[in-house]
Amino acid sequence: MALIVAAAALLLILVASAYVLLVLFSPRDPTPSPSESTFLSPASPSTPQHLHRLAAPASVHLTVVVPAYNERDRLAVMLRPAVEFLETRPLDTPTSSPSSLSLPDGVERGSYEVLIVDDGSKDGTSDVALELAKEVEREFGAKRGTVKVCRLMRNRGKGGATKHGVLHASGHRILFVDADGATHFPDLALLEAELDTLEAAQAPVVASGATHGLVVGSRAHLVATEAVVKRSALRNLLMRSFHLYLSLLGLSTIRDTQCGFKLHARASAQLLYPALHSPGWIFDCELLLVAERCGVPLREVGVRWTEVPGSKLDVVRDSVRMARDLVVIRGNYLAGRWTTPGRVPPEVVKAASEARATEGRKER
């Protein structure tokens, strides 16, 4: 009897200790300052304007959220091709145009905003971003949209900056993209086409603006290519180990969770982003885990990608940190400290599943 009591006491101590560690390692939502809800732009370079709110109706077709920390030297590599593509692509051809589905009232097809979120940079990223915005708008015009620059007072991490940008997005669709320009931006058309398919399948059962979907750009098809093979053996080993670890913890639907090129339907962003917690590199994994739990239709599309020098990722340190943070995410949901925000309507899930089944039959 004494042995049973001792074992129970030890188990209780272990559980309590694990819970305390979980609380200690769990991120805390920052308190935003009023200035972080404003932006500067070429049209208003010195007078801050208020950002949109995700909870409000969309006012443009696409928001591109760009989290940027100390990116003054790489930002142009992403911004110039992005604005050129958004300003010059034809809007009347299926392979390059935004969705042909109906848009909410007041939203003009092809309209956009690029929202650069300076994540507390120390190298003048905000100033450089604003000057670049002026340059690209002079070069390509600002007929369809504009570039906005929002500055966070303190560094939050990639996830924190991305979440802040999405929570202030105006777009009917919302893309987040890494600031380094590693992903070929015109491949946005591939993600849009996939989201078109998802939304078309849901259109008969839900109203316009209530369709769901999250399309993930993927580098999984590049595993055997020179771009990946030329990486260090350690980096490739850690990459494979991390994906094995993800599958063991329950995220196996998406092969490339970390590619910074993800397109959301607005309704899905409204459902998911207020509930996200992770401020660091593991943010993508939490997003996908919560999306799976909520029933948001997920798709993965191969994109062109080139490794760009100057990454802020420390492969060993950040891999260990991401593994720890993923345990923290799982632990918080299992312990009930964090909760899933809700479920996508079952008719949406059914329509998306049927669309995937139809695609599978066509491929065979």
Automatic annotation (TrEMBL):
Any one biological process term the GO annotation gives: protein N-linked glycosylation
InterPro entries named among the record's database cross-references: DPG_synthase, Glyco_trans_2-like, Nucleotide-diphossugar_trans
Record has Transmembrane as a keyword: yes
Compartments where located: Endoplasmic reticulum membrane
Molecular function (Gene Ontology), one example: dolichyl-phosphate beta-glucosyltransferase activity
EC number: 2.4.1.117
Signal sequence interval, chain numbering: 1-18
Pfam family, one: Glycos_transf_2
Domain Glycosyltransferase 2-like: 63-200
Pathway: Protein modification; protein glycosylation
Keyword Endoplasmic reticulum listed: yes
Keywords noted in UniProt: Endoplasmic reticulum, Glycosyltransferase, Membrane, Signal, Signal-anchor, Transferase, Transmembrane, Transmembrane helix
Membrane topology of the entry: Single-pass membrane protein
Reactions it catalyzes: a di-trans,poly-cis-dolichyl phosphate + UDP-alpha-D-glucose = a di-trans,poly-cis-dolichyl beta-D-glucosyl phosphate + UDP
EC top class named in words: transferase
Gene3D superfamilies for this protein: Spore Coat Polysaccharide Biosynthesis Protein SpsA, Chain A
GO cellular component: endoplasmic reticulum membrane
Family: Belongs to the glycosyltransferase 2 family.
Protein name stated in the entry: dolichyl-phosphate beta-glucosyltransferase
